[in-house]
């Protein structure tokens, strides 16, 4: 399988998961993360989404000199990367807190806000590259 084919699979899967992650995020925000099922659903959907983002970055940059290549990207893409990192790290911290306390925390609220910005940038990132999805 070629790199482009792998990228198509990765990107289409991200495109399918993104609205589901967004919907589960909105649901958690609207209900202050009440209930175990919505939180677990969000984790089940968001974790593969975050892993696919790592695969997407790997397909573009590999691991060799990726930091140098990454520093040459346009500002919105670099912002998206930093938002991803903040979302991922705050998500882990939020999960640990939720697992121990089983309640919504201010950290979860911060994670949600950062995540919404990340999703907004991801949508913009996708729209800018929509031609890639339309190619056969």
Q: Care to describe what's here?
A:
The protein is built from six helices and no strands. With about 140 residues, the chain is an all-alpha fold. Helix 1 runs antiparallel to helix 5. The longest helix has 29 residues, at about 5-30. The chain is globular and about 45 Å long. The two termini are about 15 Å apart. The mean pLDDT is about 90.
Secondary structure: elements and pairs:
Layout lengths: L2 H29 L4 H26 L4 H6 L3 H27 L4 H23 L1 H5 L2
Helix pairs in contact: 1-2, 1-5, 4-5
Q: What are the key terms here?
A:
6 helices, 85% helix, globular, 136 residues, mainly alpha
Q: What general form does the structure show?
A: globular
Helix content: over 70%
Main beta-sheet strand count, sense and barrel state: none
Uncertain ranges: none
Order of helices and strands: HHHHHH
Summed up, what is this model?
The chain is an all-alpha fold.
């Amino acid at each position: 399988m070629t790199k482009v084919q792998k990228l198509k699979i990765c990107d289409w899967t991200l495109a399918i998961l993104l609205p589901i992650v967004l919907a589960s995020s909105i649901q958690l925000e609207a209900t202050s993360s009440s209930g175990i099922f919505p939180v677990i659903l969000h984790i089940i959907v968001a974790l593969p989404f975050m892993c696919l983002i790592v695969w997407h970055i790997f397909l573009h940059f590999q691991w060799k000199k990726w930091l140098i290549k990454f520093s040459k990207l346009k500002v919105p893409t670099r912002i998206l990367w930093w938002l991803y990192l903040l979302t991922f790290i705050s998500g882990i911290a939020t999960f640990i807190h939720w697992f121990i306390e089983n309640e919504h925390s201010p950290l979860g609220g911060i994670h949600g806000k950062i995540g919404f910005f990340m999703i907004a940038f991801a949508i913009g990132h996708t729209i800018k590259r929509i031609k890639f999805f339309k190619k056969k």
